[in-house]
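User: Show me sequence and structure for the first protein, then do the same for the second.

Assistant: Starting with the first protein.
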Amino acid sequence: MLKDSAGGFEEESLIPRNRLFVLLDGTFVVRWDENEVQDLETGHYRPYEKRDFGALLTDYELNQLKSAGLVLNYDKEKVWLCPLPERVNSALATWEMRRARSYYLNTTLPGSMAEDIDDLIDYLGLHERFEVRVRDDFVVLWSTRGASFQKFDDAEKARYLLTSKMPEVFMNTVIAFIETTRRD
């Protein structure tokens, strides 16, 4: 169950949208106070420092969370979170066992810079390792031939490669993912 603003619990948690974000490690969280966040998937609390911040969530990511049963609804300013009991019901638990994450890199640069980033990737000699695309008006990078990074560690290695070669351009790059359902 998620905390409400008074520190109690309620069936539907309404929070300001800017308190819901993704950490650099790819974890979706709610920030309850200056130094604490709650993992949306597990409900576990963990310490938070500003350096852990990845990016605010896009509509696309919120739709993914809605499909996963973690978000009831959202608008430009607010997000309604599902109560914990609904997130662990048997149908969702079955779905979670079959879901798979496909990782990519969100540069957090505006989509209008896609051509420039594509040219930069060529200049760095990395055109065979990355494909530049635009998602939710951000420049994102996929692996070779537009495939996703299959593991978080692979995406982190790719992020590190970019930040080491051109830190002034890629320093705000975060790991993002989409969730799909595996067919058994």
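Switching to the second protein now.
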Amino acid sequence: MLERFDWLRRSQTGAELLATLQSDEWRVTGDKEDITRHPSPVTSLGPPFSALNGPCLRCWVYPRASTTAHYCITCQTLLDEAWGLYALSRRAVVIWGFVTQLPKHLQSDSDSSDRSILGAYVHDDRHFLLMLHHRELQPWLQELAIYHGGDIKGLLQIVHSTHGKDMHMGELLCRMIQDEARFPTDQLRVRFFAAPHQVYSPRYYEREGVLTFEAAEFLRMLDMAVVFRTMMRPDEQKILYKLLTMEDTREEQFYWGRLLGVLKPEAKDMLSAWKIRLWTKPQVNLLYALVEYVGFYQSS
């Protein structure tokens, strides 16, 4: 029979994953065993697949709710709940953690709760799954660093929630889990997939140096994204991106001078200090991807 983790892996979209995490059917009651053992509301197996009948077309295990239905009771409930979570899931990120110890607010004996978490699942004492609003990623990582310091080691893999049929959320999750064994638990690392398709070709982005980072280094990159978004207007950001990705160096040099003429002195100093014109295209793309995950710098 399917357990909760099996249902999570059957999520086709981020909305389905969030619906599974938030479902009342699997709420944690405080007992540690309840976190990993959750019975399905359906206990009988579905009939073999045939031209006239068959099991649920989503889980392929349990019988359909009726002769005219396509899904079992559980799958239909999750799909109905996912419909109302579609907009929220489009702004969410998924974090799969493989760590030496769980964060305090995820431990079964902890009374603390994190309101920034949209949904959470603890697989065992070393693995957990979270969904956060994408703008809450930086505060969550900062809080993790403040309260745990160097106590938590391992790997945090982050990918944006999917909302289309071309990227299966459950398959992305399985591929992320498959790669976790490659990393030792000597420090805390962050593996940030700027786009879901990167999960299928991680070695390319590893070679480009834009995928896996130390936790402190990734937080510094998020801080850079905050400064970048604060210093430059959206139209200036678009112009800069076109310049940094131009193949004609002479044309790029001409337009670069014109851009510097309209930028604020602080923005020009920022670009000069970063030596951004020497960055590779994957590094530029990563910066622009991180901008979507941060807010503006609030001066006191």
